[in-house]
Amino acid sequence: MRFIPSFARLGATMLILAILALLRPGGALAQEALQPLLQEYQAEIAKPSRSTVDGVLAALLAADLPGTAEFLLRWQDRGVYERTEDGLFFFAEEAGNGLRLIDLDSGAAVADVTSREVNQIRPNSGVRSVIAAALVPYELNAPAPERRAAALDAIARSSEASQIAPLRKSIETESDPGLKQRKERLLTLLTAQFATALPYRLAAIEGLAGDTSIEARSVLNQLTARVPGVGMVAPEGANIARVLEVGVDISTVEAYDRLVAAKLAPPRQSATDRRDVLAQHIVDGAVGGVPLHQLNTDAARTRAYEVLEAAGTVPPRAAEDEVARAVATHVFYEVYSEPTSEVTTAAEAALAATSRALGLYQTLDLVLDGLSLASIFFLAAIGLAITFGVMGVINMAHGEFIMMGAYTGYVVQLFIPDYTISLIIALPLAFVVTFGAGVAMERLVIRHLYTRPLETLLATFGISIALQQLAKNIFGTQARPLTAPDWLSGALTLNDIVSISNIRVAIFVLALIFLALLLFILKRTRLGLEVRAVTQNPGMAASMGIDPDRINMLTFGLGSGIAGIAGVAIGLYAQVTSEMGANYIVQSFMTVVVGGVGNVWGTLAGASMIGFLQKGIEWFNPSNTLAAQTYMVLFVILFIQFRPKGIVALKGRAAGD
């Protein structure tokens, strides 16, 4: 029995040796080293191509060794070097005039070499895109949020079924709420496209119902894509979308063209085609045995062609009756590219819900655009409505007061670089400048022409041209920037369809402020009382101690000052040029005439009607805004034929005439 202790000692020795072997530092490294695996694909890695990179990536991803993601990143970014003497791969960093090689597995510096001793591996763009796709599972869990976001972008650009599992797994450990939401949404899109379990796929498709984003609509459109088909009977087992009825869903000509494309029927032949073919087969003054002088009827030409067709000289052709028979004996249909009928049914229902939501959001976007345009027209026209309503003066230079206000804002920004402060200063300063210009214009020109409206129009038109030329002489012909503050940049975005710029929102708010301010002035102040008195009956107002001349001056200045503030607001998004006022003078007059002269509420109603109608016309023909403006002018002409006093009837000087 002495062999038993000996056997025990031998077993203990072997166990100790095995443990020591496992604990040896190089043992684990040998089993988990990346370099040996790379050497198996040395040639493919050193000179990668689209035809070889897939095999290398498959081996690396299957092995899942430590450092794989880092190697792929460096390989993609051309940061991997091959040492020419032994073909080993390294990372490298600059060291003086050469490079310092870094071991792939340990991260330790190996040696300093010159650029001649190594070859930098430079994969082309195609290889880099394949590597980037393979990196997605690693990048989804990268420590930097930017890398995780880039991985999601890569999945969105090139979606595959294999991305579902790593994406679902990464959601559990995602700490960023925004990225987690993106991952969950992207998982829904991938599940709807590629999931093998039908219940999960149907649930994902139902989750996309009403989603108006481009990504969701793209997925639903792919699932409901149809391919045209034709045959003697509809194919059994196919996911047929619909059977087309000839003459209703498809014309006879289109149906026969499908037969020709499917090589189920010979091509149709027109009379011209038949004549050309016959001309090519004239033999001894005849075609197919029919003399040329007899080929003056359709029946004779048909008989000649049939002879050539029977002899095999010309290709067979389809006559009209043959076309009808061929179409009648075939079934024309559309089949879904997606073979599962439950999927396409759910996708069609989701797409219908999305179409309804899309129409609703498009209507909302159109309404917001109409409100925005109406607020711009209101700001541009309210000053003109005041001067025109109280004084009866057709001021053709009103657009130039808008231009003066915009240039005032530009000059203020030259001296005050802070755009917020400069805007706060520019608004009241523009009012002061244009108020003064309006008062000067009224005192020097308008007051002498009150009883001569045609001469007033011509005079203000001349002043308009003079102000434009003066602006060109001072500021030049190039557009000048009027920059909005940062808090006005960007847009309020509800989804991919509904959005409105912050500047337009600010203009809308400014229009509401002016509406409230003007109503307060006209209804609650002495100046407003006097203005309304002069508007309704200037003679009676003068007999009550009100100076109509002074009221006219203040009113004209007030209207001009409001135009200046409107110019600052408009200049924040439009080009500030000497001609910018001319772009709004026509709309301003249309707004005043349609709304009702001299009434704030009428101006608001006119601006709303003009703005919404113009946007509605542009919606039908979005590529031609000039046509929309032309139709608007025609509408105004027709409108004033039926309601010459505008939406809100004038209660002004006509009462005193």
- N-to-C CA distance: 142 Å
Described by the principal axes of the CA atoms, the overall outline is extended
Q: What is the mean pLDDT?
A: 83
Total helical segments: 27
Reported by name, the CATH topology of the domain at 359-656 is: ABC transporter involved in vitamin B12 uptake, BtuC
Which residue ranges are poorly predicted, with pLDDT under 50 across at least 5 consecutive positions? 1-31, 652-657
Helix content: 55-70%
Structural class: alpha+beta
**What is the name of the CATH class of the domain at 359-656?**
Mainly Alpha
Rg from C-alpha positions? 40 Å
Q: For the largest sheet, list the strands in their spatial order.
A: 4-3-2-1-5
Number of strands: 12
- The CATH architecture assignment of the domain at 359-656 turns out to be Orthogonal Bundle
Strand percentage: 5-15%
Largest sheet: 5 strands, antiparallel
Structure, briefly:
By secondary structure, this protein is of the alpha+beta class.
Keyword list:
657 residues; 12 strands; disordered N terminus; disordered C terminus
Fold and architecture overview:
The chain has 657 residues and is an alpha+beta fold. Among the domains are: 1-32; 140-223, no CATH class; 274-316, no CATH class; 359-656, ABC transporter involved in vitamin B12 uptake, BtuC. It has helices spanning 3-23, 25-32, 35-40, 42-46, 53-63, 68-76, 125-139, 145-157, 164-173, 177-194, 198-207, 214-223, 252-261, 271-279, 298-310, 320-328, 341-391, 398-415, 419-444, 453-475, 502-524, 526-536, 538-543, 548-571, 582-595, 600-620, 625-642; strands at 80-83, 89-95, 98-102, 109-113, 118-120, 226-231, 240-244, 286-287, 290-291, 331-336, 491-493, 499-501. The protein is extended, with a radius of gyration of 40 Å. Residues 1-31 and 652-657 have low confidence and may be disordered.
